[in-house]
Amino acid sequence: MGNITKIAAATIGLAAALSASAGEVEVLHYWTSGGEAKSAAELKKIMQAKGHTWRDFAVAGGGGDSAMTVLKSRVISGNPPSAAQVKGPAIQEWAAEGVLANMNGLAKAEKWDDALPKVVANVMKYQGNYVAAPVNVHRVNWLWGSADALKKAGVSAMPTTWDAFFAAADKLKAAGLIPVAHGGQNWQDFTTFESVVLGVGGPKFYQDALVKLDPKALGSDTMKQSLETFRRIKSYTDPAAPGRDWNLATAMLIQGKAGFQLMGDWAKGEFLAAGKVPGKDFLCAAAPGTANAFTFNVDSFIFFKLKDPAAQKAQSDLASALMSSGFQEVFNLNKGSIPVRTGQNMDKFDDCAKLSSKDFTETAKNGGLVPSVAHGMAIAPATEGAIKDVVSQFWNDDKVSVADAMKQIATAAKTQ
Ligand code: GAL
């Protein structure tokens, strides 16, 4: 073989080797706000560095309702993406359809069982096989405060009880500010509602009422009190709340126009992306009455069965990246959540994340760790949807009485 022929052969060989390992990953997610997009970009960077092509499949809409609709139609038409942001009991539903890939080979090689809390690992498995990988733990029961707005209104500390919360809200109102920034969408209504139930009734009541859907708990005085407290919060929101996106509600705190927001810690990602400093520009505290509890929301990706070997390799590299300690650090620093891998170093994280990490560990021991219903962690999607609708109707229509809402929630809880 002449030199030129040798070089040509080597080049062809190299190209063939590259194309055998470089594939495309199409990843469906709903991370489109400022902080979320920055977090998703970290994943894209890692995949590109591995030589793969990243096809972004972002479907806007907080909480992911629109993304799930789009995903269903793609899978039904026989053209699933490589991976999709799906979590909680919905993972089992997708796996039962027989469309998910078995990731056990990688999970064994990388010792995922050792890296994850057992409760989380179980959610990622279907019939003992890994079909999904988790990236974080979001805490949902947070209250965010705008330092500027609170200062203007003379509120000196974040409230730890609902009484103190309403007293502070009155001060904000008197100062001409919007006490509570809210976005009227059903997942946001329920994000507020579940924090109220947790704060009013405590973790045991939360479990009985919202997770076990026990009719006795749903018909109790504590439920009545929770709905009354929830309705009272609405009177501190502004008329433009209906339909507002959650990140626009966070922006109202960033701009000092509103005092509080009840939202999971993806809101922190938004403050950080706007250059705001925790403890100085904005404050984080457990939602009133919930300091000893933690509503968890674990973001994860499911992996679809693919035929093309290069696409399978890219998918496996994606799963490996998601579970890597380096990615979990940089991703969660941007996202506002904490890594789901156990024993992860928290030195680079801020005080809100450190508090979250400490409370996650402590509540796991004392029974205060509960799954978020608003964020698809607790009950079957159909039941969750039915209950959310009823709670939002109650929030939106002052003519629906507390007693009626209680009956409607109990009926919706039977939806399968
Ligand atoms: C949650 C999701 C978060 C964040 C939020 C707003 O359900 O777990 O990652 O995206 O919705 O869309």
From TrEMBL:
The keyword Aminoacyl-tRNA synthetase does not apply. GO terms for cellular component: periplasmic space. Its main location: periplasm. It is found in: Periplasm. Residues 1-22 form the signal peptide. Keywords: Signal, Transport. Gene3D superfamilies: Periplasmic binding protein-like II (3.40.190.10). The keyword Repressor does not apply. Belongs to the bacterial solute-binding protein 1 family. Part of a binding-protein-dependent transport system for a sugar. This is Probable sugar-binding periplasmic protein. It comes from Simplicispira suum.
